[in-house]
Amino acid sequence: MMKRLSVLFPLIALVMAAPAGAQQPPIKIGAILPLTGSGASYGVWMKGGAEMAAEEINAAGGIGGRKLEVIYEDHAADASKAVNGMRRLVEVEKIPFTLTSYSAPTLAIQPIGAQNKVVMMNGGGQSDNLANKEYLYNNIPVVSNEVGVIADWLSKEKKFKAAVVIVANDEAGRNAAKTFREKFTADGGRVLAEEQVALDGNDFRAQLAKLKAAGGDLLFISSYGRNVAVIADQARELGITLPMAATSWVLIPEVFKSKGAEGMLVTRLPFNPDSPFARKFKEKYKTDAGFFAVQYYSGTKIFARAAEEAMKKGGGKLDGEGVKNAIESLKAFDTISGKLVFQPNHAAVMDIEVGVLKGGKVEVEKTLKANP
Amino acid sequence: MPAYVAHYLVMVGIYTILAVSLNLLVGYAGIFSLAHAAVYGIGAYASALVALKLGMGFWGGLVVAAVAGACAAALVGIPSLRVAGDYYIVASFGLQVVILTVFMNWTDLTNGHAGLAGIPRPRVFGLVIDNPFKYVVLSLALAALTYAVCRRLTGSAFGRTLRAVREDEIAAQATGKNVVLVKIVITTISSALGALGGSLYAHYITYINPSSFTLDESIFITSLVILGGTERLAGPVVGAFILLAVPEALKFLAIPDTVAAPTRQILYGGLLILFMFVRPEGILGRARAKSA
Amino acid sequence: MDLVLQLLATGLVVGSLYALCSLGWGLIYGTTLHFHVAHGAVFALAAYYAYVGQKLLHLPLPVAVAAAVLAAAATGLLIDLLVYQQLEKRGAFRTSIFISSLGLLIVLENVLAIVFTPDPMRMDIGALGTAVIIGPVFLTYLHILTVALAVAGYAVLAAFLKWSRWGQAIRAVSSSPEMARTVGINLGKVHLLTYAIGSAISAPAGILVAMDVGAEPFRGTRFVLLASVGVIMGGIGSIPGAMLGGLFLGLLENLGIWKLPSEWQSAISFGVFLVFILVRPRGFFGRTIHSAEI
Questions:
Q1: Is residue A305 within 8 angstroms of chain B, CB to CB?
Q2: What pLDDT is attached to residue C289?
Q3: How far is Cα C154 from Cα C19, in angstroms, rounded to an integer?
Q4: Do A236 and A360 share a domain, yes or no?
Q5: Contacts of residue C102 in chain B, CB cutoff 8 Å?
Q6: Assigned architecture for domain C2-279
Q7: Is the per-residue pLDDT at B127 higher than 90?
């Protein structure tokens, strides 16, 4: 993919030869994504979305006449790799802005971005700790919004009383589980047991056996990526018949294909599988688009808008501080999912849908306006 | 100096400290420990935690790291008093796994998998060491200091006792050397210095998590020692210069990272096998009398 | 109570896997005194041989598995022939053998990671994946097969070592290489045979895990470490010891998390081992060790 883009640039530059004749250097931004490992499915969407956005931006003349170039780094769900990637991007490529993903990697790079005045746009990680951080913006709601919604729905409408929870032992998983416990018990439910699992593990029978022994009427899965499918299958294999519930980050192909996941109660952030974007994505990458594809498409376009603004105010110069100021002053951005408004806590709010996973699709039961 | 050269030199400094301190155990005391990454990690976490939670400066953090390392020495050293050779190797594997599990799961202290971010940069006489170029000076200075300390140690009477213990523990004991004391001293010094390397690392990268201190890392540090040569103190230094250049060189080939990381490992592993065939004493080693 | 029984069952299954690994590694170590960590690579390779056999060559599962075991035996034999024996001819120290084995483990695992990616490669196990319910315990047929294979493997190995001529030759070398040589036993050939048999008996463990959760390039390291722990606890040179050591570790890991938080699972085996080694390094059934090791 990257090779194709780099071939396109000289061609486009030639075709759109600037009136002045001299070619401006491209604007480089980073994208630190889970390109391999347990979250590779997200990576396909995130990279695809960013690429499509960059191509469209460049086809329309670039940003202030300059081409946009996205440099991809793979963190493979490992925050150390994200840090190495970020340092390369900041120290060698001197980027003003980077897309980022996942909670722990984003938290790890945030101090580097803040210190070097590089704006970070997170479209995927959802830990509550991602809010209120300098130079970091989240065009996705933090997880307590979604977890709050599903906890309410599960206890008040679905009448579940006692939950057992399986938790990914990382920042995002533990954060979501903590919020679930708080909200579920506030609604009158009880959490009987919690077991931790590794994101890249593949045998959870011991933990599931302990959860089974604890009883309860609901299994809440506070994990994401490929292991959710394994958790669901192994739970059923062990004879756990409890209904399972999770938030939108589990809506990936592996989980759609899993028999164990059938009937899972889920939240979903708005995504229209029939939109022009989704159809174009499917045609280009030969696989269905997902919510995160839109997120990183939007994140790239938000950068383009903010960069234009920054260059106007800065007399053609572009740096991270200028981009940050532009985001702060504009606050609201038009995206293909509607108007996105960054809250004072640097996160976004979105409508949340709740429903049931059936045959690889979500049957939506309700749409709720999220609380900022 | 381009930034990547500065980065390379900083890492050479850190790994020199790690490899030279490991060589005290492997080359001089004959204790083949594969738990050095765990010791490295203890130093990194100790230093990072006192900086983040207590606001202690870099130099204080170094001292704390060294003390933490010295305490960890007990873990490394006690099995060596009881068993040696292959038994000890397995025990050190086990120690490495246990300590790593602690890093991963004692989340209240270490923040587990998420790691510790925002570790402050060192301050030397009021100057903040905030870029790789300044860090090169700090890193190489500490490496030189470590080397000097080890040189004094191995050149002294203690050093001779050490070699005697390595060659033949029973004979050494028979001539009145206090083998237990020797082992305790050497593991303490080795671990304290290894922990220093951890502190230097933590304040450079400004972020640490358990994945930097795994068994793979122990094996890598051991490779530096073996390939450079265990006989001489400078062996690991040469090993560090050469092996750390490999990932830098690979960066210039446009290999995607998913292939680059295993390729790097294949090169390291291949070098180990190759050296055992053509030069088992390492680059700086003296060819030893071969056993039957 | 249900939980304990379930953990006991899982522990037996996992213990069977460890037992197969310990039997193979222990046989090799006891006979050659090579610290053959590359055994972990053979374990991983066996899984991929089976995967390739079934998924790429479209062989029926039993054929793919049998072929994989043979291929693993050949791999182990070749490692000794081409690496260890060559080093020994050059007068290498035992440490050099260990280092070369470490190098081999790293190289082979990472080649697998490049060729197959680090993601798990799943196999089709058909009816073996069906759940079996025994009282409160849930298992699959694959798990039951695992325990059965471990028992069978042990029995076959024990019988071979006791009654066949080659088995006796192996035992002779294991107890004293010098004596064996004096009575005319060809050490080189015995070593090759040991490697072949040791690899063949551990290969099913790698294959069974792959059939359960998929083949992965780096899983072998953990298994070979646990195998060495199992062998030491059981006592070097003791075949029943290796079997029991492996089973003990599996049970320990699973029953251990009955009361302890499950995230500490990997620390339990090694933690217990560290205490054990201070108290009784000889192991349960070990003979007094020659000074090379202690």
A1: no
A2: 47
A3: 9
A4: yes
A5: 219, 269, 272
A6: Orthogonal Bundle (1.10)
A7: no
Mean pLDDT, range C11-23, rounded to an integer = 96
Enumerate the residues of chain C whose CB falls inside 8 A of the CB of residue A210: 3, 257-258, 262
Assigned token pair, A121: 């746009």
Give the mutation candidate from B273, B277, B279, B291 for the C interface (greatest C CB count, under 10 A).
B273
The model's pLDDT over C49-58, given as tens digits with 9 standing for 90+, comes to 999 999 999 9
Mean pLDDT (chain C, rounded):
92
A111 touches chain B (CB under 8 A): yes
Interface test with A, best of B133, B207, B252 (most A CBs within 10 A): B207
Burial class (CB in 10 A: 0-12, 13-18, 19+), B262: buried
Structural domain boundaries enclosing B208: 3-213
Q: What is the dihedral of CA A34, A36, A39, A43, to 10 degrees?
A: 50
* Closest by CA position to B21, among listed B102, B63, B76, B58: B76
Subunits with 3+ Cβ pairs within 8 Å of A are B, C
Residues A119 and A38 in one domain: yes
Amino acid identity of residue A203, one-letter, is D
* Residue in chain B nearest C118 by alpha carbon: B258
Q: Which two three-digit tokens encode residue B49?
A: 């935690």
Q: What is the pLDDT of residues C225-273, one digit of tens each?
A: 999 999 999 998 899 999 999 999 999 999 888 888 888 888 888 889 9
The Cα B125–Cα B204 span in angstroms is 17
Q: Which pairing describes strands A97-100 and A119-122: parallel, antiparallel, or unpaired?
A: parallel
Q: In this structure, are A332 and A364 located in the same domain?
A: no
Q: What is the DSSP letter of C136?
A: T
Rounded mean pLDDT, B232-238: 92
- Is-contact C123 C215, C-beta < 8 A? yes
Residue type, C46: A
Burial A249-275 (b: 16+ CB within 10 A, else e): bbbbebbbebebbeebbbbbbebeeee
- Give the model confidence (pLDDT) of A103-136 as tens digits: 999 999 999 999 899 999 999 999 889 999 999 9
Question: Does A35 share its domain with A52?
Answer: yes
Answer whether A169 sits within 8 Å of B113, measured CB to CB: yes
Q: Tell me the backbone φ, ψ of residue C214, rounded to 5 degrees.
A: 105, 155
Q: What is the DSSP letter of A50?
A: H
A148-152 average pLDDT score: 91
Nearest Cα neighbor of B196 from B19, B32, B52, B65 is B65
Strand A27-33 with A97-100, pairing = parallel
Interatomic CA distance for residues C60 and C244, integer angstroms: 33
Number of compact structural domains in chain A: 2
pLDDT on residue A5: 54
Residue numbers of the domain that contains A34: 2-140+273-341
Residue pointed to by tokens 């005697």 = B164
Q: Residue B254: what pLDDT?
A: 67
Nearest-Cα residue of chain C relative to residue B30: C95
Distance CA B163, CA C254 (A): 44
- CA quadruple B58, B59, B63, B64: dihedral positive or negative? negative
Pairwise CA distance, residues A344 & A138, whole Å: 11
| Contact residues for A160 (Cβ-Cβ < 8 A; gap 6+) | A154, A189, A217, A218, A243
Beta bridge partners of A367: A353
